[in-house]
Amino acid sequence: MPTTFYTLGVKQIVQETPETVSLLFEIPPSLKETFRYREGQYLTLRKQIDGEEIRRSYSFSSSPLEQDLKITIKQVPNGRMSTYINQELKEGDTLEVMPPMGRFYSDSFPVEGKSYFLFAGGSGITPLFSIAKTVLHANPLNAVWLLYGNQNEDATIFREELQALEQEFGSRFAVQHVLGQVSGETPFQLEPWPGIMDESIIHRFLNRHRPQHLHKEYFVCGPTPMMKAVERILQEKYVPKKTVHLEYFVSNAEANADTIKGKRARLTAHLPDQTVDTWIPEGQTVLDALLNDGYDIPFSCRSGNCATCLGKCHPDQVKMRTNMTLEDDEVAQGMVLTC
Question: How large is the average pLDDT for residues 255-274?
Answer without folding.
Answer: 61
